[in-house]
Amino acid sequence: MVELEELREIDFTRPRERPPIELLKRAANQVRRDVVTMLAEAGSGHPGGSLSIAEIITALYLAYMRHNPADPEWPERDRFVLSKGHACPALYSILSLCGYFERDALSTLRRLGSILQGHPDSKRCPGVEISSGSLGQGLSTALGMALAAKMDGRTYRVFAMIGDGESEEGQIWECAMAAAHYKANNLIVALDNNELQIDGPIREVVNPHPFPEKWQAFGWRVVGPADGHDFRSIFAALDEALSPDSRPSICIFRTLKGKGVHFMENQVEWHGKAPDKQQLAQALSDLDQQ
Amino acid sequence: MTKDVSETTEKIATRDAYGEVLVELGETHPEIVVLDADLSKSTRTEKFAKRFPDRFFQMGVAEANMMGVAAGLARCGKTAFASSFSIFASGRAWEQVRNTICYSALNVKIVATHGGVSVGADGSSHQCIEDFATMGAIPTLRVICPCDGPETGRAIRAIAEAKGPFYVRLGRAKVPTVTDADAPFELGKGIVLREGGDVVLFACGIAVAGALAAREALAADGLGAAVIDLHTLKPLDEDLVEDWASRTGAAVTAEEHVLRGGLGSAVAMTLGRRCPVPLECVGIDDQFGQSGEPEQLFQYYGLTADHIAEAARRAVARRQ
């Protein structure tokens, strides 16, 4: 468990020392607890791909991004676009932990009138940069934000999280081409490579591999593959992606879909299914031991 | 306020007017950026690109990505004009327009040229005749189709000042100038170009010139036709539609679009609810376009002034 007071001490607006890995681990564990609890309460949603990004999104929000929960529209903020929008329970969790909205709101996920829609809605939810959920579209918006930063001489960075199944969308590669063409070196993409999509393993559905060669060929700096569940590995990857280069960067993170809940790990059927009460208790018990 | 079509010698393509006004707006609005998908010569955004190269984004033949990038720029305070041919802007990128631009309520102005069969020789693949329906169906997206060069300038200026997403359909062909340079323009408010007591002709885009010509033919029959320019298809000026339908008791719509889901459908929905009168709709009846000269195509698909006048006679006959 993570205490909110521990996180409130962090000034997210400034470049900062990394919080201790022990704290980040507990925060990622809290994200996972939130994800399964929210989904069980909502009765639907996407656990697998939310659990697989817990460490990456925790590292970004707590250790790397400059942002301001008290002023979500702060012009200098680093932007985060969850292009794989179905993983929004993890985003909602980290936003609530940072203080963008009350923790109570998590229990309203997917309910009528909630700020926490089934896929991210920037009009409703503070801290959600742009609405997403239709795969392939978020990355293009991130490029637009990166181009705006350059036009305006601003130093913010734009982080986008895409999925490996999502990489089957043609728009991802349209954007890959354009971002390299425009030398959008303030755009950093995190690829959640958990190897599964709705209909099965990505290699069996329509194989999008090999990722490093494809992105290199499109003119990107490719970082990794890194271990998306190990903070030291995540730090090394993000540090490299943020070091000077004329190219946009992509960090390929190897992850485990459903990570942290044993019966969900690497199981295709847990892409888009909520745990029942008993399964929730089991999941939380798993997470208690981590 | 307006000129007779017969007196008009000047013809301007609405896309040409767009190219001009974009550059003018660029001078006074530093927040305006323009994106195009390898059609800047044809959409006329090339003029802006030459004048403001740092604010122009050539996105290549990739309309889906263009719409997303426009959305991201808008999210960071830019007023983003995204242009392509209407078939690609409204068709290829429909879901990007819906889910990324409109759902996020972003300040993106989709200005699409080469609408309708008046594209001509390129044929059906490049003749968008469904965009009023497809774009109009997207919640909150406002849809405009100006009738001539000067009105295009006014429409583009208006949407540059208004917040949120718009879709504007422009044409390839030169069209007669039927409005004055200083005519008023208000988003969502139709314009009474001519008054008349026997029938009202509601039109948008290139069909407005046809309606004005039809009015002259009807006058020879002793029928007085009002001509209303409904440049904003959504939100429709329902009060004006009801007012003129009730004054005349017979109505016609004319548009360069399929009948289902366009101006005719919108007017019919309004009249059905507020003022049921005989209504005849001029448009394309569930067919694809094809190659040909614009005038030939208008004749083939039943979109000429004669077709509009005939529709008016039918509407008047049904009233009597």
Structural class of chain B: alpha/beta
Work out the strand percent of chain A.
Answer: 5-15%
Count every helix of chain B, treating DSSP H or I runs of 4 or more residues as helices: 13
Whole-number tally of structural domains of chain A: 1
The stretches of 5 or more residues of chain B where confidence is low (pLDDT under 50) are none
The poorly predicted ranges of chain A are: none
**Percentage of helical residues of chain A?**
40-55%
Computed over alpha carbons, the radius of gyration of chain A is: 17 Å
DSSP helical segment count of chain A: 11
Structure characterization notes:
The complex is a heterodimer of chains A (290) and B (320). By secondary structure, chain A is of the alpha/beta class. Chain A has one domain: Thiamin diphosphate (ThDP)-binding fold, Pyr/PP domains (Rossmann fold, 3-Layer(aba) Sandwich), CATH 3.40.50.970. Helices cover 40% and strands 12% of the residues of chain A. Chain A has helices at residues 4-8, 21-42, 48-51, 54-64, 88-98, 137-152, 170-181, 202-206, 211-217, 231-242, 277-288, and strands at 79-82, 158-163, 187-193, 196-197, 200-201, 221-227, 249-254. In chain A, the strands form 2 sheets. Chain A has a 5-stranded parallel sheet with strand order 1-2-3-7-6, with helices on both faces. A two-stranded antiparallel sheet of chain A has the order 4-5. Chain B is an alpha/beta fold and 320 residues long. Chain B folds into 2 domains: 9-176, Thiamin diphosphate (ThDP)-binding fold, Pyr/PP domains (Rossmann fold); 188-319, Rossmann fold. Chain B is 42% helix and 20% strand. Chain B contains 13 helices and 14 strands. Chain B has a 7-stranded mixed sheet with strand order 3-2-4-5-7-6-12, with helices on both faces. In chain B, helix 4 (63-75) runs parallel beside helix 6 (94-102). The longest helix of chain B is centred in the first third of the chain and has 15 residues, at 14-28. The chains are: A alpha/beta (290), B alpha/beta (320). Chain A binds chain B through residues 121-123, 129-134, 136-149, 151-152, 170-171, 174-175, 177-178, 181-182, and chain B through 33, 54-55, 57, 59-60, 62, 64-65, 67-78, 80, 95-96, 99-100, 103-106.
